[in-house]
Design goal:
Blueprint (H helix, E strand, L loop, with lengths): L17 H11 L5 H11 L3 H14 L6 H14 L3 H13 L5 H13 L3 H14 L4 H13 L7 H13 L7 H15 L3 H13 L5 H13 L3 H14 L4 H11 L5 H17 L5 H14 L4 H8 L9 H17 L2
Helix pairs in contact: 2-3, 3-4, 4-5, 5-6, 6-7, 6-8, 7-8, 8-9, 8-10, 9-10, 10-11, 12-13, 13-14, 14-15, 15-16, 16-17, 17-18
Length: 338
């Protein structure tokens, strides 16, 4: 996912130039913060650890700077790249509660929620922000995509679909919102058995080479129903290559490999399931259950021990995740013989 980083676009150098002063003054009517300029350059070089440290220092020493919210967003994104999920989530949630005018903030947090199967949290956040900013097509598309991909019904589904079609007609494939909006429409049509429309949308979004993970997961489902598993698995592998930090294609691939009986394949599935569990910050009941099952089949630890050791990660979730937690506790009780 490409994120528009408001600070990091200004300078590719690690020192503050006259051009930086002029650009910062035009946007924020203030002088640049040297730590943030250096952090932005490191960020673009994918040195997230040093970038995060410099963002943190700049935020601590300039808490009232006009650009501090943008810096906090960049800092949170860097933390996500370092898999420091809890701190990143806390920062993003605080920014969203403040109602910041940074669409990327809501988008990143919603995506973060989905990775941990926190679908209700994601939908609540997106519903609020799309009501506040109805013209943000990417956020509206993500709201609809998350709901339709994971089986939630929206009260005004027909209106939302119409708004997405209107928004899409104003976009081009180069626009950030276009892939999300198009994938949402593909999922909507597929769920309603409007297969020709779904295929048209999906083919278009997959052709651009930067499709959302959901597009590949939808193609995987389609090909799986046609028993074309070689081609279906190819879609998962492509999604993993393009989005290596998203647990969903890893989980689906692990679940597919878990059907095997040989040790080598099952061990590969276990490794994939473990990585999916880690990337979902141990809050995905589906990934955790699959990993524990595979570990119990071929590993040294029992399935019950693994579930028990990680169950505290799940107990703070709300709404939908309580349903998952109930299933989790039932399976754990059966394993313990209670």
């Amino acid at each position: 996912m490409r994120v528009k980083r408001t600070i990091s676009r200004f300078s590719s150098k690690t020192s503050v130039s006259i051009k930086d002063y002029l650009n910062w003054w035009k946007v924020w009517r203030s002088l640049p913060v040297a730590n943030w300029v250096k952090a932005a350059a490191l960020f673009r070089d994918k040195d997230f650890r040093q970038a995060a440290e410099l963002y943190r220092r700049g935020i601590a020493s300039n808490p009232r700077h006009p650009a501090v919210e943008c810096a906090r967003l960049d800092y949170a994104y860097a933390l996500l790249q370092l898999e420091q999920h809890d701190e990143a989530q806390e920062i993003l949630e605080d920014l969203c509660k403040r109602g910041v005018s940074l669409p990327d903030c809501y988008y990143i947090l919603a995506r973060h929620y989905v990775k941990g199967e926190m679908y209700v949290e994601a939908l609540q956040l997106l519903k609020t922000v799309t009501e506040r900013h109805p013209n943000q097509a990417r956020l509206l598309g993500l709201y609809a995509l998350t709901a339709w991909m994971y089986g939630f019904e929206l009260i005004d589904e027909k209106e939302i679909e119409y708004r997405l079609i209107v928004a899409r007609n104003k976009l081009t494939p180069r626009d950030q919102a276009w892939p999300i909006v198009t994938t949402a429409l593909a999922v909507r049509c597929f769920a309603q058995s409007r297969l020709r429309e779904s295929e048209e949308y999906l083919s278009q979004v997959l052709a651009i080479g930067a499709a959302p993970v959901e597009a590949y997961l939808l193609r995987y489902q389609q090909l799986g129903k046609l028993s074309k598993m070689d081609r279906a698995v190819d879609q998962l592998q492509r999604a993993i290559r393009l989005s290596p930090r998203d647990p969903r294609p890893l989980f689906e691939y692990a679940r597919y490999l878990a059907r095997a009986k040989d040790f080598e394949t099952l061990n590969h599935a276990r490794q994939l399931a473990l990585r999916a569990t880690e990337l979902s910050f141990y809050r995905s009941p589906s990934a955790l259950l699959l990993y524990s099952e595979l570990e119990g089949r071929i590993g040294s630890a029992s399935k019950a021990d693994i579930l028990e050791s990680h169950s505290f990660y799940l107990k703070s979730e709300r709404d939908l995740n309580f349903i998952d937690l109930d299933t989790f506790q039932i399976q754990l009780s059966r394993l313990r013989g209670r």
